[in-house]
């Protein structure tokens, strides 16, 4: 039986380095329980979070905006509500959101330079977090318009991996991943347009959930990046990720995608049953060179062996991806073009962004409409794998995380080739709009660099994926490992 493990890492963390480092916050479920039981106050937790953020900005640089004064006021309001006996899913817990998400009173610069206006309203997902009682401590770093699997740029500098600061935490939700992995916040929201939650989760030893398209509202945008981008949680445990997913889920009347609701946290304590799992190491065609690093392959195959030992039927089989890459590029580049139009000064944008925006203009209109029309046939084509299997297990990335700066100063064409070489596995599920969950697979070698594996399912399969992830977590106990002192 899969069991919830949210309290475990808060009680007995094991670091892979020396020294006490900043005080790590408890996990999300453990923090909710401690607050409700009066073991800690929201102000105490928020002050700890703010101290940790301040202490690690020079080393990790996870945050673009820190809302110290506002967060403390929100924490005091949460303490008053707790003292009145109120109970809400996240009441008093400090959380972070990515800098592509509107927070009232803060600019949404999405990794760009320039003087962006302060927002006058929360995004729908932030409104839901506040309704659940969360304290929003800040906005985390993202590369420019979330385009790359590294979190670096002239607007904010380099965000670094708490496991090894010479390496990137990934992207584009790299700031969120670094903050959660270092214990600065119990959990955070990122966004995933080509793996941007799952990739940094893999490279920082976290659980990262890409939900079904529309599960979490993207309002004030009816959809994000022509439907390929969704918002999802990053956390240290499956229970924490599910708790945040439940709290953040739901729709605004203006959303284009409104899937039926699911109960994520309830799935964590359910036995997934005996599943048929396809182990896949094949990637979709991109006409660019790629190689699966033997360390990643060994880690994913070791997880497959553990799943078989847990009673599941595991076979090697690959989805038939077909021409899915031809449908991704128009949607992604047209999305970059639309978002780049919000920048106050186009001259401040990265030359690669301007090039991608030009491509988006060329591929908009009829080409974009054709790409979107191909989604239904592609779902049927790729979905044939689920006639035989319940879940696909695949690498999340092809390599461990690269070094900081390795991709940041390349040309647009060079960046695309290197990006695909590192991360060829995640993006097809964004085209399909289906859920996927990264789980930690290993911390490799002397460099202590994490790698991950994806559990991929068909539409609305978050409960199944989370149930299986929780069963694997109970076996692997990955939450017991912490990065070195940061």
TrEMBL record:
Record's keyword annotation contains Hydrolase: yes
Positions of the Amidase domain: 44-466
InterPro entries listed in its UniProt record: Amidase, Amidase_CS, Amidase_dom, AS_sf
Region (Disordered): 1-25
Enzyme class: hydrolase
Pfam (any one): Amidase
Ranges in a coiled coil: none
Keywords assigned: Hydrolase
An example molecular function term from Gene Ontology annotations: amidase activity
EC code(s) of this entry: 3.5.1.4
Family: Belongs to the amidase family.
The protein's name: Amidase
């Amino acid at each position: 039986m899969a069991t919830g493990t949210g309290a475990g890492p808060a009680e007995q963390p094991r670091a892979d380095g020396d020294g006490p480092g900043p005080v790590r916050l408890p996990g999300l479920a453990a923090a909710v329980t401690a607050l409700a039981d009066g073991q800690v106050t929201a102000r105490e937790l928020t002050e700890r979070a703010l101290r940790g953020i301040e202490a690690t900005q020079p080393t990790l640089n996870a945050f673009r905006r820190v809302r110290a004064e506002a967060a403390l006021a929100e924490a005091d309001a949460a303490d008053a509500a707790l003292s009145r006996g109120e109970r809400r899913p996240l009441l008093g817990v400090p959380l972070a959101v990515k800098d592509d998400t509107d927070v009232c009173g803060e600019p949404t610069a999405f990794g760009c330079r320039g003087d962006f206006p302060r927002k006058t309203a929360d995004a729908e997902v932030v409104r839901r977090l506040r309704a659940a009682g969360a304290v929003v401590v800040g906005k985390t770093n993202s590369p420019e318009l979330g385009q790359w699997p590294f979190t670096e740029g002239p607007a904010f500098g380099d965000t670094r991996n708490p496991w090894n600061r010479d390496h990137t935490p990934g992207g584009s939700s790299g700031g969120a991943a670094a903050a959660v992995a270092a214990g600065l916040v119990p959990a955070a929201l990122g966004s995933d347009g080509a793996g941007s939650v799952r990739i940094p989760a893999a490279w920082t030893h976290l659980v990262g959930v890409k939900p079904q398209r529309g599960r979490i509202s993207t309002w004030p945008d009816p959809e994000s990046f022509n439907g390929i981008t969704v918002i999802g949680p990053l956390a240290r445990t499956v229970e924490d990720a599910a708790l945040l997913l439940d709290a953040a889920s739901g729709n605004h009347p203006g959303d284009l995608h409104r899937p039926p609701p699911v109960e994520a946290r309830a799935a964590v304590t359910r036995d997934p049953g005996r599943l048929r799992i396809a182990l896949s190491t094949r990637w979709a065609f991109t006409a660019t060179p790629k190689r699966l690093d033997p360390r990643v392959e060994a880690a994913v195959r070791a997880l497959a062996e553990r799943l078989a030992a847990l009673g599941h039927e595991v076979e090697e089989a690959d989805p038939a991806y077909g021409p899915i890459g031809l449908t991704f590029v128009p949607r992604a580049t047209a999305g970059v073009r639309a978002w780049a139009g919000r920048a106050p000064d186009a001259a401040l944008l990265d030359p690669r962004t301007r090039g991608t925006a030009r491509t988006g203009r060329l591929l908009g209109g009829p080409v974009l409409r054709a790409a979107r029309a191909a989604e239904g046939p592609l779902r049927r084509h790729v979905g044939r794998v689920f006639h035989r299997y319940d879940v696909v297990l695949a690498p999340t990335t092809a390599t461990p995380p690269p070094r900081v700066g390795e991709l940041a100063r390349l040309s647009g064409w060079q960046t695309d080739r290197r990006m695909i070489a590192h991360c060829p596995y995640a993006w097809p599920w964004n085209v399909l709009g289906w859920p996927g969950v990264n789980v930690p697979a290993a911390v490799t070698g002397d460099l202590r660099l994490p790698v991950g594996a994806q559990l991929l399912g068909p539409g609305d399969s978050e409960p199944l994926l989370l149930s299986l992830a929780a069963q694997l977590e109970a076996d692997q106990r990955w939450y017991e490992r912490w990065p070195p002192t940061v």
